[in-house]
Structures are given as C-alpha cells and as structure tokens.
Amino acid sequence: MLNPFKKRKWWDSGLKFSCLPNCGKCCNEPDGIVYLSLKDMSRLASFHNLPLKEWISRDCRKSSDGRYILKSKKENKICIYFDDDLNCKVYDSKPDQCSAFPWWNENLVNKESWENTKKICPGIDHPEALIINKKTIKFWTEADKISEKGIRESDLEF
Ligand code: SF4
Ligand code: SF4
What we know:
It is a single chain. The chain has one domain. By secondary structure, it is mostly helical. The protein is 31% helix and 8% strand. The mean pLDDT is 95. One iron/sulfur cluster (SF4) binds at residues 19-20, 23-26, 101-102, 120-123.
C-alpha cells in the first residue's frame, strides 16, 4: 500500500545515464576518496590473493577520521588501481562506492548537485543514455551509504 506521507524524491521518475566506454573521468580525479565496506575489503584482498591484513597495509590508508580508503599514487594522487590506459585494474572486484557512481547520495541531494556531477560525468544526460529507474538508483544510494560509513581499525578482528 502506498504511504501518503512518504516524501517523493526529485529523481523518482528516473534519471538519464549510461557509463561511456573508455571514459574513466570519475577515477581520474586527484585526491578522490574511495571508502570501503568490509565486503569490498575482503573481495579486493582475495582478488590479490592476500590475507586481509596484508592487503590493507599494502593498498589502504586512513582518512582524517580513521576510515580506511584506497591509497593513491604518489605522483598524481589518483587511485592506485587506475592504469595508464584509463582502466580500472580491479574492475570486476572494484569497491561498491565506485560501482555506485554517479548515484552517490551527495550527488543526488538536489538538481543542482546533480548538475555539478554532470561536469565530471559525461554519461549523465548523454544523448544515447538510458533512463535509470528509481529502484536502481535507490539500490546504489543504499550501497553508497554503507560504503561511506566505512570501516575503522576497531571494526576489524585480526
Ligand atoms: S565519469 Fe561517468 S561516464 Fe565516465 S566512467 Fe565515470 S561513470 Fe562512466
Ligand atoms: S578502484 Fe577502480 S573504479 Fe574505483 S577509483 Fe580506483 S580505478 Fe576507479
């Protein structure tokens, strides 16, 4: 049954987006931060055939408030997994927050934040883009929420 008090989101009728091949603009951002869920960390550790602790110490650092995030390359401050051909080296195991882009909660606050996201992402409103429905958008905003909560050292038992 419909809840008459449930507030409609401005994007409830869907938004136009398709990820463009060979783009990589969302990864190619210096100082980008990728928060990690525990599922992401376990997946990436197995992808690299490393025990979780070892993978964390090799590929993660901590944000200013102690959440684990992916390391960036020293020379350009871009994600360590972004290669010179503009591809993600861990594509099939990439963190949920990467998969969730551009459906991050901060991008969907209002139409203005969505317009700003468009400056980074040419897939938004691209002439050949598809309409993504609210169920899919909601799925990714929930995933983004979990990732952003993040994992701290105290959450892990080694
Ligand atoms: S910026 Fe947008 S179109 Fe480009 S790779 Fe990222 S999500 Fe895809
Ligand atoms: S993990 Fe992959 S998708 Fe995520 S920022 Fe790094 S290169 Fe991009």
